[in-house]
Every structure is written in structure tokens, then in C-alpha cells.
Design brief:
Number of helices: 11
Number of domains: 1
Radius of gyration: 19 Å
Number of strands: 0
Strand content: under 5%
Order of helices and strands: HHHHHHHHHHH
Shape: globular
Structural class: mainly alpha
Largest sheet: none
Distance between the termini: 24 Å
Length: 283
């Protein structure tokens, strides 16, 4: 492990976690393509800690508001805080969701449960047989195509406050299969949200919100091993790089998709899959 490796892997984790291109797939393929050393468990925890910091820094006010809706009494739209509306408009002028309803908290919990269960029971597979380059090429292509179709064909007429319990469960189940490298947690959840009729920004926003409990749980679960194996300068660099690039990815993503579409990510995933298959046959 070198400083260069730490920075590159931190960038991959930060960008890949929030763009629908699969951070886990890139973290498997990059060492395979370029001969990077195995960073080990502690480095993996550092990368996830960085993206957790990114999501909390960007959405801390959103989470506070969501928690507040659970413990506060219901109020009419006319009595909502002017200050709250103002910061939400400044934070993301392209989002139709200027406020969260009282059910979003519970929907985030519902969407988290399948991923937590699948992650617990399939973690060993994710670190062994799921790391095949050809499997990753296949999942990159298939999920990319589904994202393209969902973006192009579905009607995006619902916002984040229109999400139902059934929607949350469906998105949560799609998040669960993202344990397979190449699927992409963001890619699978955004695709499902689009197929359910969510607008582009709402699909991405809900995907980002439900990522926090999953990333937090994975980090906490492995944190004792992270501490016992020692935290060196490369781990710290990786945390900072993943946090900064992750924050930038969230900011850019929400602005980009409000004006364009998701098809660029399909073409990127398809091109990467072709590259993987080509290199695999050459090797």
C-alpha cells in the first residue's frame, strides 16, 4: 500500500458509493486491472467510514428534520417553519421535496432491514465468490440497462413524500442485492425508485438517505477489527479522500440528474463491462 493507492481507492469509494456505478465493483476490478495490493479489512472500514462522514455532512439537517417529524405533532403546511423551507430550497433548489412527511423515518427503517439481513448472511460470499470479474461485468451491464430503461420509460410523477410502505420495502429489497459487486447500491435503489414512478431527484435522495443506516451498520460491525489492526496514515488519507469525494459526488449527482438523465451511467457501466471482459480473455 502506498499513498497513491490510498488516494485512488478513496476516490473510487467516495464517487462509486453515490454514483450508480458500483463502488464495490470498482474496488475489486481496480486492483485486478492494475495490480494493487490487497488493502485488507481495516482499509475497507476506513473507506466506508469516509462515505458515512460524507452522507452525514450533506444530509445532517435532513436527518434532523426527519427525526423531528417523528416526535412532533402533525402540523398543516401553512404552519411549517419558514426558516426550514428556506434552507431546504438553498440546499437543493432542483428537488421538489422541500419538506419530509412524518412517515419518511419509518420508510427509511423499512428499506434498511432487507439490506441488513442480506449483508449479515451473505457477507462471506460477497468477499469470495461474488468477486469474479466476469460476474461483475455481467451485473454492471444488466443493472445499467435496467437503470436506462427505468429512466427512459417510467413516468416520473411522484416525489419523495409520495413514497409508501410498499415502495420502501421494494427499494429496500433492491438495496439488499447490491451486496453483489457491480450491482451498485445507488444503482439498484435508484432504478427501483424510478420504476415506481419517483422523479429523478427524489429517487436519488431517498437512495442516499437509506444508505446512511447500512453504511453505519457495516462500519460499526467491523470497527473493533479496524482499531485492533491499527490506524495508520494511509487509512486516515483514505477516510478523508472518500469523505471529500463522496460529498462532491452527492452534490454533483443531485444537480446533474435534475437537468439531464441517468443514461450516461448506463454507457459508462457498459463500457467498463466490455473492458473487463476484454482484459479477462487477454489474461
Amino acid at each position: 500500500m502506498t499513498l497513491f493507492h490510498a488516494i485512488i481507492l478513496g476516490l473510487i469509494q467516495g464517487l462509486g458509493e453515490f454514483l450508480p456505478i458500483s463502488s464495490s465493483g470498482h474496488l475489486v476490478i481496480t486492483p485486478w486491472l492494475f495490480g494493487f495490493p490487497d488493502p485488507g479489512l481495516s482499509f475497507d472500514v476506513a473507506l466506508h467510514l469516509g462515505t458515512l462522514i460524507a452522507i452525514l455532512l450533506y444530509f445532517w439537517r435532513d436527518f434532523l428534520e426527519i427525526i423531528h417529524t417523528v416526535f412532533s405533532s402533525s402540523t398543516s403546511s401553512s404552519s411549517r417553519s419558514l426558516a426550514s423551507n428556506e434552507w431546504m430550497r438553498e440546499k437543493d433548489q432542483d428537488s421538489d421535496a422541500s419538506h419530509y412527511n412524518k412517515n419518511i423515518f419509518w420508510f427509511i427503517i423499512i428499506a434498511t432491514i432487507p439490506g441488513a439481513i442480506f449483508g449479515y448472511f451473505l457477507e462471506d460470499y460477497a468477499e469470495t465468490i461474488f468477486r469474479s470479474p466476469l460476474l461483475i461485468a455481467g451485473t454492471l451491464s444488466i443493472v445499467g440497462l435496467m437503470l436506462f430503461l427505468a429512466d427512459k420509460c417510467a413516468k416520473h410523477t411522484r416525489d419523495i413524500n409520495d413514497i409508501t410502505k410498499k415502495d420502501a420495502l421494494s427499494i429496500g429489497l433492491s438495496q439488499a442485492i447490491a451486496i453483489i459487486p457491480g450491482v451498485s447500491r445507488a444503482g439498484s435503489t435508484i432504478t427501483t425508485g424510478l420504476f415506481l414512478g419517483l422523479d429523478r431527484v427524489s429517487a436519488a435522495r431517498f437512495s442516499f438517505l437509506i444508505s446512511a443506516p447500512i453504511i453505519f451498520g457495516a462500519t460499526v460491525l467491523k470497527f473493533p477489527d479496524f482499531i485492533s489492526s491499527g490506524v495508520g496514515p494511509y487509512e486516515i488519507i483514505a477516510i478523508i479522500t472518500a469523505a471529500v469525494s463522496g460529498y462532491a459526488a452527492i452534490t454533483w449527482m443531485l444537480k446533474f440528474i435534475s437537468r439531464v438523465s441517468y443514461k450516461v451511467f448506463f454507457w459508462y457501466r457498459l463500457a467498463l463491462a466490455v473492458l473487463i471482459v476484454t482484459v479477462w480473455f487477454i489474461k
